[in-house]
Amino acid sequence: MHIALFSSGFMTTSLHLHSHAGTRGFTLVEVLVAAALLGIVAASSIWALTQANNYAAISRLYTGAETAAQNQVDYLMSDSPFNPQSSEYGTTNEWTLGTGTAQTVTIYSDPAGAAGKALTITGQMVTTVKDTGLTTASQGLNLYYATVIVTYTFRSKTYTVQLNAMRASDV
């Protein structure tokens, strides 16, 4: 096939196209290379999405544990009357010196679990209260220090969240 693109008195520009009847489409090697590249892209995309889902689950559980610890700290800070010099440590005695009993707390609860089973992740929360022992020239400051630790296990790995709070006497 011959196509004349530009023609003037002395110069002719033309394009020669050759057509072969059997060269339509892709070769087997081209198809295999394209399929291999597509497989690599698909596999890496699935891996990336799986990792993102894993990080989201770990983050969700950490946030749940942190919320449980923060609720305990808020409870400690709002319990009153707190007047250690008169042996008043709030209505529940949460500020009594020492390590409290471990409490089971819910870290995460999913009511729409797989196969109709609700997924619940629980952990253990321990609160430890100490007297800082700080004093002025004549008397103690009655400044108490609480540490709340929430520990939970997810996919055979143990995670820990720790929050601290200080509280001075209400009087």
Question: How many DSSP-defined strands?
Answer: 9
Radius of gyration: 35 Å
CA(first)-CA(last) distance: 103 Å
Class from secondary-structure proportions: alpha+beta
Shape: elongated
Order of helices and strands: EEHEEEEEEE
| pLDDT < 50 stretches | none
Mean pLDDT: 86
Task: Tell me the number of helical segments per DSSP (H or I, 4 or more residues long).
Answer: 1
Which range does the strand content fall in? 35-45%
The largest sheet is: 5 strands, antiparallel
Quaternary state of this entry equals: single chain
Query: How much helix is in the residues?
Result: 25-40%
Summarize the structure.
With 171 residues, this protein is α+β, with helices and mostly antiparallel strands. The chain contains one helix and nine strands.
Description of the molecule:
This protein has about 170 residues and is an alpha+beta fold. It is built from 1 helix and 9 strands, in the order E-E-H-E-E-E-E-E-E-E. A hairpin with a 4-residue loop joins strand 3 and strand 4 (about 90). The mean pLDDT is about 85.
